[in-house]
Every structure is written in structure tokens, then in C-alpha cells.
Specification:
The protein has about 525 residues and is of the alpha/beta class. About 35% of the residues lie in helices and about 20% in strands. It catalyses: guanosine(34) in tRNA + queuine = queuosine(34) in tRNA + guanine.
Amino acid sequence: MLTVGDGNRQSRKEDSHLLHFVSEGMFVVSLDAQRTGNSKEKLGGHAGLLKGYSVLLAKAPLLKMETLGIRSEDVQTTTTNTPVGIFLVVYYISNYVFRFLCQILGRFNRARAAQLTLPHFISQTPLFMPVGTKGAIKGLTTSQLEEIGCQIILGNTYHLELQPTSELIDELGGLHKFMNWPRALLTDSGGFQMVSLLHLADITENGVTFQSPVDGKPMLLTPEESIQIQNRIGADIIMALDDVVRTTITGPRIEEAMYRTLRWIDRCIAAHKRPNEQNLFGIVQGGLDPVLRDICVKGLVERNLPGYAIGGLSGGEDKDSFWRVVAQCTAALPEDKPRYVMGVGYPLDIVVCSALGADMYDCVYPTRTARFGSALVPEGILKLTHRAMADDTRPVDTTCGCMVCKTYTRAYIHCLVTKDAMGSQLLSYHNLYYMLKLSRDLHSSIIEGRLPEYVCLFLCLDFAFYLLSVLFHWFVCGFLQKMFPKGDVPEWVCNAMEVAGIDISSCCAPFSSSQD
């Protein structure tokens, strides 16, 4: 049984850890440490989590056990006097793992800044999740990812099952331990491979059969098998298997996929054996058809899932259709559950979707573009492969505080990206830092009520840079690609911001209806 002193007593090792969090204005939910593979005598950890503990901000409303899904028979409660203004409740929960909690910390019209309490980490939204398909972000260590503020890494069920297999991962203690990642994980269901590996896939009501790109053998992925694999992998958030089709497809296949997705979610729920440890998200499908999207949203909400994803986008549809689907879905999804727009990784798209009320995003874009020698900067894209970089002694981004920009010049990275893999590793570090800082800036701007100013600054940087670049175009050889090559804010952005209740007319007036 853990007890907590009055703010001054630190007579026990456990108390010293708990009192640290009391002094920081938090209350602590104590879990059975054995569930996390650590004895209580070996406590320690990192921001948001002591091994064996989950931590919540005390400024949050005091949560009832029922809100957390905790049964009274599982709990012993101790209350003590604590520093002024802080009421501390410690739950000692035998054989129980803290389940998902989404708490809205701030709003601006439709935009939300939330706190997600997961078994391994407390995350702040909006948030971007780097993609570690096979349990690793190419070129970066988990320590580096912690260093730049990564909160959740995405892994892929299909690829992890192919190699090294979920059975081996489970035997070795789960994916967190396998890849030495102490923070949160999300695993995709494998459904995206229906699109990316369509030439190797055969989709039926039973599931999807893939031809393994490793050995050519067939692999049947059913909703039940997808969940069983993800249960073995052990991610904090797991995704239901959905029937994925490209949004550019029209006709009855879209409707078929939407209704099949609803049928499959019930099979996923029935197969899920770790609901108190892993949070199952359903995925909204329906292509670009608002009627089908509405049916799917309502069907998923009726099942009262821990969270919801908006799927089937970023597959070649025009931007006007893209934002309208996001706006429709976020307006219909529950306020107290997270909303995850899958496959979104362009900075502008994340800003727009966050303004419309989305919370979570993932994409390979930051690391993939790094491998092509390009860096994300406030003005758009900086191509380090261009010969104009050869003698440029400036950092990649003069406004960036990452290790790469503090340490290396454009000239040095230019030399590396054309000859050495280290160049793409450094750019991957910078690009992910940029995306994670974008997420933090969105979070703070919503909390502080200055989202319109932040959005205008974000957009005006690109527009103002264009005006300057016209003057210097012939000198810089066009190596910097502008986000808005015609110097305008695309009409789709203006329309989306109007729906989001954010006035951008004071900073950048639109000049065309570009969809790019």
C-alpha cells in the first residue's frame, strides 16, 4: 500500500517520487508495478510516467473512479493533506492498467487542445506521430526521438507480423521493451496495405489475403487476426481493421467498403482481449460521399469506442474535398474522444485540420523528404541538394532550436546528402523536430486563445517569403520551393478557416482557387 505525506515528509522511496509530483501540481494514480515489468523498489522514469504510475495534472477536474472505468473493488484509496490548492488522491490498483482518458484543456471555436492519458505516456494534442513501420524511425534512435519531444510512435501491424513476428515481440516483452521506447505506441491495423499493396491483396468479407513481399507466401489478415497481433505487440492505441479504398474511386465499391468497415468493427471489438490496457479506435470510411461518411460516423459512435480515426484520405483527392470530409467528421464525432486524421503530414494540412477540430496525425513525409535531401522550414521546403547550398554557412533554419540547426551548416549537410547517409539522418532529425514543434505551437496557441494570430503568422510567412523570393529568384537559382508558388493563400484554406471560425483576411488575401 502506498501512502503520501503532507508535502514535507519523504520517509519512503515511493513517497519521494509521489511528493515530487505533488509539488509540481499533479495527482498520481498508482498502478500495480508488476504490470509494467518493474518492481516498486526500482521506480524511476520520465516526464508523464513513473514506471508503475500514471500522472495527471492537478489542475484537471478531480476524476471519479467511474470516469476512469475503475471498479471500486479494485481500488484502495488514500487521501492526505498536501500543499495548498492541491488535493491528492492515490489509487492503488491491483492488476489494473490505467485506461485511456481524453481531457480537453482549451478550445478556440472548433479547435481543441487536449491531454491524452495512455498507459505509457501522457500526450498533448494536437500531436504528430512519426511512422516507425517496422518498430524504428529510419536513421534515428529512440533516445533522439525522446530528445525532440516525440510522444507517440506509429508501427504497422502487417510489417511487424511479417518480421520479426508478433509472437517474438510478445515473447521479448512487447514492442515497447523490444524497441526500448518508454512512451506511447500506436499500431495501424494493416488495412492501409490494401491500397499500398493492392497488387498483392485479395479482399473478401472474411478479411484480406496478402502475398508476402518477403517470401511470396499468402497471409490472411482477418479483423480477429489483426487485433490478436496488436494485442501481442502491446501498443497503447490499436486500430480496427477497415476496408480501405482510394478516395479517387467512385461507384459501389466505396459503399461496400464503408458497410464492411462497420461489420468488421464488431468483429474487432469481440476479438479484443486487452480493452483495459489497449485502446481500440474505429476508422471512419465512406470516400468523398457525405452520406456514407455520416452513416459510418454514426455507426462507430454507437459502439462507444475510446477514439476515432478519419481514414481514406490523403490518397489523391483534391484539397477542397479533403478538408470538407475532415470538417464533417470532426463535427459529428464525440467531444470527449480523440480524433485522428490518418496519413496527414503536410504542415499546412495539420494546421487546417487542427483548426477544424482534429487531434492526431501521422505520415512518413518528414522522414521521406529528408531522405531526398530536403528540409522543412517556415517558408516551405529547403532543398539541400542544390548546388547553391555548397558554400552556404547558415544553419538549415535560422529560427530552429534543434541540434542540427545549432551544430551544422547548410554547406556541410549539402556535402553529406550527396555522399553520405548521415545527411538524411540529420535532416530526419530536423524535420521531425519541426513537425513536433508545430504540434506544440498549435497546442499552446489554442490554450492561450491566440490561434488566429498563429495561423496568420504561419500563412503570412509563406506569402511574404514569396514576395522576397521574386526579387532574388535568379540569385538563389530557385532552390527554395514555396508553399504557395503564386503568392496566394489557396481558396480551400480560406474556406476551411471560415468554417473553423478563423479570420485570415487580415494577413493574407486569397488570389486564386488553387487546390494544390
